[in-house]
């Protein structure tokens, strides 16, 4: 006999079915886009080559793809857990911890309707190992790479960069000041 009333079970089943429908719609709407996540960066972005792109653009795209893969993995896991919870409702074991057999409080089920565990027996989540295919070709930089690379190269640092750029003119440079002086006469 379940510790949950029929009203509570109906409410929890509605929550599960609503979330299941949301997840199915997500995967249906994003099916074409998501199918490209496992492809190479060149194919998924539609670019002829990623060589001409700035490294930061490629890095951003790689990050976005790895994030999307992780989100989709998480949502797929949630959809599977929802299906399992609905099956436990059919079996009459919904609301009981699958490890200890103790009753899961209604408040917990309302917050996480697909849970199969009491708080004490909830397993730790594993982090997905799926990574973008580009990472297979990446190598780690040699040790010391980048450390003080501009220190002795004769290049300027951020403070000197402004001084060099300012030589080419700013909104306060003489050419701009002369233009302002002419416009001052227009007001007369």
From TrEMBL:
<dbReference type="GO" id="GO:0008270">
    <property type="term" value="F:zinc ion binding"/>
</dbReference>
<dbReference type="InterPro" id="IPR037187">
    <property type="entry name" value="DnaK_N"/>
</dbReference>
<feature type="compositionally biased region" description="Basic and acidic residues">
    <location>
        <begin position="148"/>
        <end position="158"/>
    </location>
</feature>
<keyword id="KW-0863">Zinc-finger</keyword>
<dbReference type="InterPro" id="IPR014240">
    <property type="entry name" value="YteA"/>
</dbReference>
<feature type="domain" description="Zinc finger DksA/TraR C4-type">
    <location>
        <begin position="92"/>
        <end position="120"/>
    </location>
</feature>
<feature type="zinc finger region" description="dksA C4-type">
    <location>
        <begin position="97"/>
        <end position="121"/>
    </location>
</feature>
<keyword id="KW-0479">Metal-binding</keyword>
<feature type="region of interest" description="Disordered">
    <location>
        <begin position="123"/>
        <end position="188"/>
    </location>
</feature>
<protein>
    <submittedName>
        <fullName>Conjugal transfer protein TraR</fullName>
    </submittedName>
</protein>
<dbReference type="Pfam" id="PF01258">
    <property type="entry name" value="zf-dskA_traR"/>
</dbReference>
<feature type="compositionally biased region" description="Basic and acidic residues">
    <location>
        <begin position="178"/>
        <end position="188"/>
    </location>
</feature>
<dbReference type="InterPro" id="IPR000962">
    <property type="entry name" value="Znf_DskA_TraR"/>
</dbReference>
<feature type="compositionally biased region" description="Basic and acidic residues">
    <location>
        <begin position="123"/>
        <end position="134"/>
    </location>
</feature>
<keyword id="KW-0862">Zinc</keyword>
